[in-house]
Specification:
It comes from Actinomadura napierensis. InterPro entries: ABATE (IPR010852), ABATE_dom_sf (IPR023286), Znf_CGNR (IPR021005). This is CGNR zinc finger domain-containing protein. Residues 149-187 form the Zinc finger CGNR domain. This protein has 189 residues and is α+β, with helices and mostly antiparallel strands. It has a single domain, classed as Orthogonal Bundle (Jann2411-like fold). The protein contains 6 helices and 6 strands. A two-stranded antiparallel sheet has the order 1-2. Helix 3 packs across helix 4. The termini are far apart.
């Protein structure tokens, strides 16, 4: 599992490769594999999760809303080229995210000693999954780190990333190398 925040991992399920865009959520099996790589407790036991087409559609809709919010966050810089023309309007994206999010009930349990237990307040696998992802996105967007989000400007890259160092320009070393190679090619040809 990546150390990126869940909202960035969700937005990063669309990637660009040599043959074009790839979508980890193109099939229910792809969504199932991705969810099983995540820690979404206490909402969902990800090891037992299996997506169907209806859940896949709901999660893709939520992901597009999150990507629309990332696009708004990086403005006035241009949004990711992956799907900028297919994103819902900002107000719709915000409303969808807020409708999907559900609070977690914090309870005090006392067996041998007191401890906190969290329980989701929604029922159903799809509702728990979208609530977990929406709550993670709300936490991310309301955190000061969100001000450091950028769009990777490397050729063919469509990812958002957190700029963790003042000199960081790309989401990865590979993207930096690709950008420098493209710049060198354009200068000498």
């Amino acid at each position: 599992m990546s150390d990126e925040p869940p909202a960035l991992r969700l937005a990063g399920t669309i990637r660009a490769g040599r043959t074009g865009l790839t979508d980890r959520f193109a099939t229910p099996e792809g969504l199932t594999a991705w969810v099983r790589e995540q820690d979404l407790s206490p909402y969902l036991d990800t090891a037992a999760f299996t997506a169907d087409e209806a859940v896949r559609v709901q999660v893709v809709e939520l992901r597009q809303a999150v990507r629309a919010l990332f696009a708004r966050l990086v403005a006035p810089a241009p949004p990711s080229r992956a799907d900028a023309d297919a994103l819902p309007p900002f107000d719709q994206a915000l409303d969808l995210l807020n409708r999907a999010a559900s609070p977690v009930l914090r309870q005090l349990r006392w067996q041998d000693e007191p401890h906190e237990q969290l329980a989701p307040t929604v029922d159903g696998t799809a509702a728990r999954l979208t609530a977990a992802l929406a709550d993670a996105a709300i936490g991310f967007f309301s955190d000061p780190i969100a001000a450091q989000v950028r769009v990777c400007p490397a050729p063919r890259c469509v990812l958002y990333f957190v700029k963790r160092h003042p000199r960081q320009e790309w989401c990865s070393i590979a993207c930096g190398n690709r950008a420098r190679a493209a710049r060198h090619y354009h200068q000498h040809h």
